[in-house]
Amino acid sequence: MERFQDENKWLGSFYNEIIVKCPKCESKAALKEVARDCKCGNCTTMTFECKVCFYKIDEPVYQFRAFGKHYCGYCFEKFEYESQIFKERPETHQVKCPHCSFHEEIKPTVYEVRDEPKSDGLIRECWHHLPLWFQKEIKGKVFWAYNQEHIVYLERYIKAGLRERNNNGSGNGTMISRLPKFIKEAKNRAKLLKILEKWKE
What we know:
The protein has helices at 148-159, 181-184, 189-200; strands spanning 3-5, 17-21, 28-35, 44-49, 56-57, 62-71, 78-86, 93-96, 103-106, 109-114, 134-138, 141-145, 162-164. By secondary structure, it is an alpha+beta fold.
């Protein structure tokens, strides 16, 4: 009987490379983790370059939302505001006082938000919302993987007749602890292993 012991990996453990479908030529391509230009020096981001058509994306697609608290310039009551999504960072934002309906233009607090992914049923990575290359629908559920390392880890888990959790205080935070029920069920084992074997080719 094969044995699997949870190594306490989470999905982020497989972020070093994510295999996706190129949005331009639909070829197999990869997102790679690189250091982000920031003050702390510890941030990373994912860049994309297709080796077939040379389409490239350097930074994730960000949008912007204005939010904050403000005192009305007319009635002096305090209120909170939050804007819709902007494609460019707004320098000013027009707010309406909920107490007296006074309109005024202010300099808002702005935060970055990621562009919303398409709702087409495909599993997409969270930086550029490109569809994963390794994904397959099984009875209304989507089975997917980021890369070869992820595939091998899933294969080891699914093959094992004895699956052991390694409780080191990670609770329900590991990838294995969050797998959908259909992946854990023995009745789907042969089908899932066949898919993984094909992905490894």
